[in-house]
Amino acid sequence: MKTTTSTMDSEAKQTGIVTCPSCGARVLPRSDGVCPSCRQKTFDRPGATDPRSPAVTKKAVLGRGAAGEPGIRGWLILPAIGLVVSPVLLVIVIIQQILTLLDHGQYRQLDILFFLGFDILSKVVLLVLVCVVAYLFFKRRSGAPTTFILYLLAYLGFAGVELLWGMIAFGADTLVPLLRSTNIIGIAIACAIWIPYFRLSRQVKRTFTR
C-alpha cells in the first residue's frame, strides 16, 4: 500500500496530476487552477499558492489577484496615478483659494467673493468624491468604474459653471485666464478618453469584480 501511494505521489510530481480538494478526483488542473472535473478552483497543484497567504494578498491590488483575477495594470495605471495625485492637488488649490478669499474679503467685492466661494465649495465636493473613487478603485469594487465616470462628469460640470460665471461676471476678455484656471479643456479630453474606456474596456470588466 505504501509502495502504491509512493508511486502515485511520484507520478503526480512528474505529470502534474493532483487530487482535487473539491471533488476528490485525480485530475490535471488547467493553467488557471480550475479542476476540469468539477469546475472549482483547486490550489492543490505543483507550484500553486494558497490564496490566503500574505504573498498573494499583497499582490491582490496591483498585479494579479489571488484567484487569477487581473489586478490594476496596463492603462489602468494612469487613472491610478491620477487618483493618488488629485487629492493632494485639490487640497493645495483649496488652501490657495481660501487665502485669496480672505485677502479679498476686506474689499467687499461680492462678485469675487461669491465666485471664490463657489470654487472652494466645488473643490471640496470633488475632494470628497475623489477619495471615495480612490477607495473603490484600489479595492477593485464593481462600482469603481461608474463612480470614476461620475467624478469626471462632476469635474467637467463644475469647470463649465465656473467658466460661464467668470465670463458673465468679469467680461469676455477673461476667457483665456478662465480656460487656464478651470482646466476645462484638459478635463474634457480626460472625459473623452476615460469615460468610453471605463464603459467598454474588457480589462475594466475583469478587474473591478468585487
Q: How would you concisely characterize the structure shown here?
A:
By secondary structure, the protein is mainly α.
Task: Please describe the topology of this protein.
Elements: H1 2-15, E1 18-19, E2 26-27, H2 54-58, H3 77-104, H4 110-138, H5 144-170, H6 175-182, H7 184-200, H8 202-207
Antiparallel strand pairs: 1-2
Describe this protein's structure.
By secondary structure, this protein is mainly α. It has two domains: 2-48, no CATH class; 74-207, no CATH class. The protein has helices spanning 2-15, 54-58, 77-104, 110-138, 144-170, 175-182, 184-200, 202-207; strands at 18-19, 26-27. It has a two-stranded antiparallel ribbon with strand order 1-2. It is elongated, with a radius of gyration of 27 Å. The two termini are 46 Å apart. The model is unreliable at 1-8 and 44-67 (pLDDT under 50).
The percent range for helix content is: 55-70%
Gap between N and C termini, in Å?
Answer: 46 Å
Structural class: mainly alpha
Name the helix and strand elements from N-terminus to C-terminus, one letter apiece: HEEHHHHHHH
Describe the global form: elongated
Q: With helices defined by DSSP (H or I, 4 residues minimum), what is the helix count?
A: 8
Strand segment count: 2
Number of discrete domains: 2
Strand proportion: under 5%
Gyration radius, in Å? 27 Å
- Give unreliable regions as ranges: 1-8, 44-67
| Sheet with most strands: strand arrangement | 1-2
User: Kindly state the mean pLDDT as a whole number?
Assistant: 78
Q: In this structure, how is the largest beta sheet organized?
A: 2 strands, antiparallel
